[in-house]
């Protein structure tokens, strides 16, 4: 007598759970709408803060408070979604985004802007929980492709958000941008309430309630080859976030650019990133390998950072941003791929999650550092500083690639993050 077949996966056969394509489309649209709102606000931050007399350092702190809130709260919200289910936590985070955008639009002081951005950071669990949702509803052999769909929503949102925000600011004024972002988040909430179904079975949620809220065992990975990659990721993200926080201030000082022009520059960076990570990275990895692309990506970012302030010309600015976007598009998926290859299959989630924590810490410290240097030494110096630190990262990456052990051939590739600022 043949043994009984294994029980079906929760993706499509358990009663009441979402089915593949429709569920993927739902989570794609949920994340896309959320990221469009995020992309609308990002280029606006320095100019909005200047309304209330914010210094350069305070503008950096406005960027940093978002990442700090995300660093602290995202793991807790992820564990909460394991216990309560993905749907209620996603709905709560979308609702938090609505409140954060409305508070940002109505803020009458810099302190309220900081509060609004902190609330946005707390609510920014959508992407990580969206990834968990996708993992719930897809079998392992389809998971990387499905994660790519989430990444595509991320990249597309970062292109459309700045472009839409810049157009709206030029037509209706800056205040219209957070109001429109709040309206978009409210539409997203209605859409999710109607279409987003729970993906995590009740019995799995029950088991999760027995686990600890805080698991520090992953910190044991911060040593050896993996520790070197984590340090490299932190350093690169630190330099890149210095550029992100000070780009608008630099363009304002050098070219007189406002919200609209800066938004189009961010949209351009998003287009290059999507082209590289969405269309080229697979073929480049097959041709050159992750290690070569990682070093080449850091070299391109170092060149872009050093070139950007060298000649204050718009054409040079665009060329430098293209180098930065190209380098980031090569570096991020290559490093995450190496992390995945050097980690056993049972520890993939913890390793990638730990890399996200290092990235969030870098995005917390980088903006405040960059804007402080801007106020202290002048417009070019954040980019000179980040460029020199990126050269240090280049030397570290070259040395580290020589010492890394051979990758485990059976380990799956890690999904890439298209936009490092989120």
Can you tell me about this structure?
The protein has 422 residues and is an all-alpha fold. Helix content is 77%, strand content 0%. It has 15 helices and no strands.
Task: Quote the beta fraction.
Answer: under 5%
Give the CATH class of the largest domain: Mainly Alpha
Shape: globular
Low-confidence stretches: 1-17, 408-421
CATH topology (level 3) name of the largest domain = Growth Hormone, Chain: A
Count of the separate structural domains: 2
Q: Which structural category fits the helices and strands? A: mainly alpha
On the 0 to 100 scale, the average pLDDT is 82
CATH homologous superfamily label of the largest domain: MFS general substrate transporter like domains
Outline the biggest β-sheet: none
Q: Figure out the total of helices.
A: 15
Helices and strands in order:
Blueprint: H1 20-41, H2 45-50, H3 56-84, H4 86-106, H5 110-123, H6 126-137, H7 140-172, H8 176-195, H9 202-208, H10 224-255, H11 259-288, H12 290-307, H13 314-341, H14 348-377, H15 381-403
Helix pairs in contact: 1-6, 1-7, 1-8, 3-4, 3-5, 3-9, 3-14, 4-5, 4-6, 4-8, 6-7, 7-11, 10-13, 10-14, 10-15, 11-13, 12-13, 12-15, 14-15
